[in-house]
Write a sequence for this structure.
């Protein structure tokens, strides 16, 4: 049955979702790349680190996760006693797909002296095979706490790993994964856009390739890009990350102009994350009503994956910013 067919005609989705969230004692968490209507309904909107923290500390019985599967799995790993639903179970991630656990295990086995510092955009199995998880907002703080002579495998995002490597002059063995969304930005089109808006700074996510990062005035996680949007002195900002983040900028900073960096033909929708876009209001309603699709993780695997996530939460505590524009709490 299609999702639309599961919703009775005439249903007021917002009213129903609000009633169900009370009835279920549910918290709705959303990533900044979600559709505006989902961000606006959420109890909390944040980046990957903030959402992990929120999932670990909430006292709700149900977490409805408007994001992708690895994020909902992270919530379940950290809060196993809660029901975690993901509106669309097909909401994956190209970085996760690039890193099959058996290949990652074999790669680790070939480099036994290396520790595995792994981006949170990976499967639960890969988390279980890793020593420390990082997000884009915690990676710098965590990397700086690892002794200089400790060899490191960094996966699965070679662009985030490469950027960290250049920034801290630290060699790491990089897994060759990419985010298809950030990979699609075009340097040629970005330069044209910069020429049209002289003086407008560029803020880029570190999942972008070096050709884009090289033109950026600010590089960082979604929440750090939101902070830069608030703090930069001008009135126009070029944003090189998934464009739904601009919803928060436009709400909080209506006096400024935000322009999404272009993809290859200058006018494509290739920078919209196709996985994040699978979640809709209808599917969120059905997920809260039926408590399905539900994330389930085998306990032994969960405990192993939790160790590397706990390490991140412990080591990242130094990275909590003061006076951030994000995370956003509803109300
Ligand atoms: P952050 O929000 O942690 O920067 O992550 C970006 C991303 O690509 C999530 O999939
Ligand atoms: Fe994965 Fe990229 Fe989509 Fe984030 S934006 S979920 S990294 S494909």
């Amino acid at each position: 049955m299609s999702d639309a067919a599961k919703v009775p005609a005439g249903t007021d989705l917002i009213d129903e979702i609000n009633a169900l969230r009370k009835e279920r004692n549910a918290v709705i968490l959303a990533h900044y790349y979600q559709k505006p209507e989902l961000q606006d309904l959420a109890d909390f909107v944040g980046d990957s680190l903030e959402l992990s923290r929120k999932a670990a500390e909430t006292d709700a019985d149900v977490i409805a996760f408007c994001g992708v599967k690895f994020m909902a799995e992270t919530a379940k790993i950290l809060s196993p006693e809660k029901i975690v639903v993901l509106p669309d179970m097909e909401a994956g991630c190209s970085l996760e797909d690039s890193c099959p656990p058996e290949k990652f295990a074999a790669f680790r086995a070939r480099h036994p002296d290396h520790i595995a510092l792994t981006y949170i955009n990976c499967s639960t199995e890969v988390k279980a095979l890793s020593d420390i998880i990082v997000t884009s907002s915690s990676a710098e703080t965590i990397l700086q706490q690892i002794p200089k002579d400790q060899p490191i495998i960094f996966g699965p995002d070679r662009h985030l790993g490469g950027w960290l490597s250049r920034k801290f002059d630290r060699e790491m063995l990089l897994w060759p994964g990419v985010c298809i969304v950030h990979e699609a930005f075009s340097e040629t089109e970005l330069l044209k856009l910069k020429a049209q808006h002289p003086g407008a700074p560029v803020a880029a996510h570190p999942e972008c390739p070096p050709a884009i990062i090289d033109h950026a005035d600010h590089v960082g996680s979604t929440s750090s890009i939101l902070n830069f949007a608030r703090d930069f002195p001008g009135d126009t900002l070029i944003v090189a990350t998934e464009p739904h983040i601009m919803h928060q900028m436009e709400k909080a900073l209506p006096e400024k102009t935000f322009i999404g960096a272009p993809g290859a033909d200058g006018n494509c929708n290739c920078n919209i994350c196709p996985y994040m876009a699978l979640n809709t209001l209808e599917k969120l309603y059905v997920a809260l009503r039926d408590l399905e699709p539900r994330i389930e993780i085998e306990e032994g695997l969960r405990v192993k994956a939790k160790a590397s996530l706990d390490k991140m939460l412990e080591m990242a505590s130094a990275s909590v910013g003061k006076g951030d524009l994000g995370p956003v709490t509803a109300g």
In short: Residues 3-92+276-296 form a domain with the Rossmann fold fold (CATH 3.40.50.10800). Residues 112 and 151 are 10 Å apart (CA to CA). The chain has a mean pLDDT of 93.
